[in-house]
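ugh ok so i messed up the first submission bc i forgot one of the chains. this is the corrected input, ALL of the components this time, i swear. 631 residues overall. if the numbers dont match what u have on ur side tell me asap before i send this to the collaborators (the ones from the other lab, u know who)
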Amino acid sequence: MPTSTSEIASQREELAEKSASSSRGWYQWLLIGVSVLFAVVSISFVGSIIIYSIPAWAHPGTLLTGKGWQSPTGPFGGFAMIIGTFETSLIALVVAGIVGLGTSLSIVFLVPGKFRNIIATLVELLAAIPSIVYGLWGFLVLAPWMLKTFDPFVNKFPFASTIFGSPGQQFGPSLMLASIVLSVMILPTFVAISREVISAVPSEIIEASYSLGATRWQVIKDVVLPTAKIGLFGATFLALARATGETVAVALVAGGVANAQFHLLYPGTSIAAWIATQFGEAQGTEVSALMALGVLLMLINFSLSLISRSLVNRQRKVLARV
Amino acid sequence: MTMIDELVPQPENASTRDAIRRTAHAHRARRVAISRVMMILCGIALVLTSIPLVLLLIQLIVRGSSQLNATFFTKLPQSPSLVDPNAIGGVLNSIIGTLALTIYASIMAIPVGVLTGVYLAESRSKLAATLRVIAQTMAGAPSILMGLFGFTLIVKYLQIGFTAIAGSFALAVLMLPVIAISTEISVRNVPDTLREAGLALGAKPHKVSLKVVIPSALSGIVTGCLLAVARAIGETAPVLLTIGGGYLNEWRPLNPVSALPLSIYMNAKSEWPSQRAQVWGIALVLVAFVFVLSLTARIWASRKQKRNS
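and heres the new structure output, hopefully the right one now
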């Protein structure tokens, strides 16, 4: 008879091992077969986009740094879309990161306990709203408002036109509008994850620091944030991945113009939005150029999610140590 | 006497004692003040987050509900003309299209996703570890890429064309990893003691898995599937590149169909004010679908949790 817990644990391992491998009956083979099918689908997902993009990689320089997009014959330059993607999602991330962190902190530390669950559910529901609805709101409500109020206001400041461009000649959609819509859109996602990360900080160490006389902010600054730091970075990268991959919302509010420029009040586009807006009329090489942009988007997204996943795993280890 | 007074050492000299006490009190006042300011800033962030989201919800409900009438749900869309700028018809074709797409996508994704999830939870092989990484990466992939995949494989390579089956395939690829991951988590959460009890009674491993483990994990699996459907139903980018659109009540897999998100995307840019107004109604219906699905999922999950605990 096993006596110590470690012996019991090792016996359990053995049992589980046996039950997993012993009778490779029809059920085991079914599971393996279906999983292999899943793997095949995933591999052909990546493969088919790459294969269809191959003709466009004849001019990799043009694709990455070219400034014009001449349909239907080319050259097809992706510089404007790459800039637009990074410009809009980084602005959105900074806004949503700062405001979202404050929001999750106040949900955990300010909101009374009985409302906390309601707010948490509400945030998760908001995160489930389809992105097209955010885009629609930006296009029909925010765009006219920005044209009337925001753009003239911004340009009252000296030197603003070097960042934002000169006002009064645009019709609403712009990179700035896209950044704002993206930040509103990723806020619920970011808050939902960062709230979870923050509430996972063990209450023992929080109570310990309160008992030493720390104020609420000292507890947050010196105990909660350092413990949750890595997980919060993970949430940030996840939000960034969502923002860079957003398609239809950006297609509606960014203006859909392949202008390689940095001024925020002028229309622009992003990689995903450009694929969506151009795909309908694209023929021949243009299709493969759009596929090549898709490959680029895939590379950006996969590396972001790789980083965020490793950060979340590290956070789990940190919490296990605390 | 506050707590601070007890904490500071008490020197003999009265004036030194006073000086120390004053410094300590000043220090504490500063810390408290900083804490107040920072917590107020956090509160402001909460308000800042709420304003756009609450505005969006209110506008969606107010502008959307005024569009919902019998014509909206029962008629086909019409093109407005100068003679009759308000003749926009309804969106029945998009509702039917969205339901058809979602059902086909679920039929394709749920069995494969659930079985993959069970395999991920029960196997310790290298294949499972690799598949887990693939599933996690795919779950975060931009939905436009699923559209490109549906286009290249179904529309172009298999030459099936812009059809409901192409769109639902793209949506199924989107749902698959989400279902697999949530299934894996809920199967893993089944206590080992249950499994071992089944094995101890002499049941074959597959019997234990089918009759003990999966039934106990069922509510988690259903929740995951509902959330995946809720996500797929609102996706625009995959269907934009694959379903072709259409103005008829069409549901057959090999014909082009319409969908709610697609008609939002198309009509938002319309030059007719009546069509732009109708878009709010479509968006409200879509969000209602999504909310009902996610709330059902959540209530289901929490009820089961209560029963277990």
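quick check: Chain B touches chain A through 97 residues (CB under 8 Å). that seems consistent at least. The mean pLDDT of chain B is 88.
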